[in-house]
Every structure is written in C-alpha cells, then in structure tokens.
Amino acid sequence: MNLLLKKWRNVALGLSFFTAAASSVLAAEPLVDAAWAKANAGKPGVVFIDFQPATDFMRGHIPGAVNSNFAKDGWREERASDKVPDMLGEPNKLAELIGKLGIDNDTHVVMVPQGANSTDMGIGTRIYWTFKVLGHDNVSLLDGGMVAYTKDKTNPLETGASKIAPKTFKVNLRKDMIVTAEDVKNAKTAGILLVDNRPEDQFVGINRHPKSTASGTLVGAKNFPNSWMTVNGLGEFRKKSELEKLYKVAAVPTGGEQINFCNTGHWASVGWFVSSELMGNKKAKMYDGSMTEWTITKAGPVEQKIKLD
C-alpha cells in the first residue's frame, strides 16, 4: 500500500511540474527587447504585429512580422448607438481579425509599434490590453518598438508583404477587465482612485479632445501623464525604480484598486500597462470609453480646474 501511495505521489509531482512548466510558457514577459526580437524572429509560434504604415512596413520589418493598421482594421470601433469613438471592438470580429493575422490561442503575440514616443507605444499597450481582455495572456510588447530594433544596424530586416497562413483564434472574454461608465460612477462612490493619463493641459481643462463635449477631468482624479512613463517621453519604458518615484510625485499608489482613463483609452492603456504589467498591480483597470464617452453620454460631472473665456 505504501509503495502504491508513493507511486501516485510521484505521478502527482510530475503532473504538477508539467503544469507549472506549461504555465511558464504561457506567462510571457510584458516587455521584450530588440535582442529578444532578433533571436525569435521567424520562429514558429511567435507572431510580431507591426503597426507601421503599410509603406514603411514594406520597406523593412522584423522577419516574419505581420502588418496591421491600428486605426482602420477594427481593433477599436465607434459605438453605433451614440457615436462614442474608439471603443473595444466586437469580440467575434476581433477574433476574425486576429486569426487572419496568423494567430491562434497558442501563439506568442508581440506588439511592435513605431516607438518614436509614448503615444506610439500606446498603440502597442492598447492592443496588448485587448488581447488580455480576449483571454490571451501569451502577449508581449517590444520595448522601444521599431525605433529600438533598427537602432542596431546588424538586426535583420525583411522587405515586402508578409505571407500569412490564417488560423482560428477563440475568445475567452474577461468581462471583469471591461470598465463601463456605470462602473466608474460606482468606483467614485466607493472612493476608488481614478488616474487621468492625459497631458496636464487636458487634465486641468485648458484643451480637450475634439470629440469630447466638455473640458476637464473626472471629479477627484489624479493626473499621471503617460509621457512620464517612458524615457524622455520616447519609446523606451522607464525602469521600475524610476517609475516608483514618479508614482510618488503623482500621488498615485503602486498598489490597490484604481482606474486609468484618458480620452479614448489610448494614453490610459500606457498607464494601465505600467501599473498592471510592469509594477504588478493587478487591481488596476482601464476605462476605454474615457472622457469622450463620459462627456458625450453626460454620464456625470466634470471637474474643470481652469476656465478660460
């Protein structure tokens, strides 16, 4: 009997090791660097999504990468009922789009924005967030984007259009990651921190997004501009020790419940990515409707710190 128990215990330990190993494969690092990209370019099971304009992509991209248009391919869409722009795309349509890029549920997906500035990196973080919402954790972002990759002239480039074998991608929607205007109202009532990742001029109400109907920010929000989170506002993310200092200056804790927002969930995705993925605060969420939805639908009051004639 003891021998039998010992045998089953060994089997259980083996299964446990196998499960842990499989999990480690799926738990991709949020950031990869240019050296990693060079070493993994063209490998089976790895797909780089390059968000350069098509003409730039044709002139040179990471070998094996596929090209996608962030603004036009359906990653975000205008909500028909009230014309709120740039909301999360319909999950089944997103699944079709992703499959056409040669990605299935076993693929390690790596976002490759241009990388000239923090707003560029927001393209990568927004689609990274989208994959997470769709239930896909095997996803990373190339730190510094194509700017970082092409800095080393020995890194190989491929020209022309990519050859894609379509695959099937299945959605496992994480509804808890989708924050609505009603969720924001409830969060405000509960005293949950709201973090505005827009530039200060928009935060205080000097300027606003052209599709927002009012200037200012959510009442009680803290301002933590997305450009602070990358080195000199460019494409490389700051190291954790630097970010910790910036969180302190912005009076934003590195842990606990918080909701990042901006105008349309672009800059806010950078804030969410840094809080959730780089700082490890898994209680951070992102409100993709942000100030355009809040003001277009008149969901609640707006705080304008400066009123100009």
Overall strand count: 13
Strand order of the largest sheet: 1-7-6-2-3
Task: Give the overall shape, derived from the CA principal axes.
Answer: globular
% residues in beta strands: 5-15%
| Biggest sheet details | 5 strands, parallel
Low-confidence stretches: 1-25
Relative helix content: 25-40%
Gyration radius, in Å:
21 Å
Number of domains: 2
CATH class of the largest domain: Alpha Beta
**CATH-level-4 superfamily name of the largest domain:** Rhodanese-like domain
Q: Which fold name is given in CATH as the topology of the largest domain?
A: Oxidized Rhodanese, domain 1
Instruction: Report the average pLDDT across residues.
Output: 92
Can you describe this structure?
The protein folds into two domains: about 30-150, Oxidized Rhodanese, domain 1; about 180-305, 3-Layer(aba) Sandwich (Oxidized Rhodanese, domain 1), CATH 3.40.250. Helix content is about 35%, strand content about 15%. The chain is built from eleven helices and 13 strands. The protein has helices at about 1-25, 35-40, 55-60, 90-100, 120-135, 145-150, 180-190, 200-205, 240-250, 265-280, 290-295, and strands at about 30, 45-50, 65, 75, 85-90, 110, 140, 195, 215-220, 220-225, 260, 285, 300-305. The strands form four sheets. The chain has a five-stranded parallel beta sheet with strand order 1-7-6-2-3. A four-stranded parallel beta sheet has the order 10-8-11-12. A two-stranded antiparallel sheet has the order 4-5. Helix 2 crosses helix 6 (about 145-150) and helix 5 crosses helix 10.
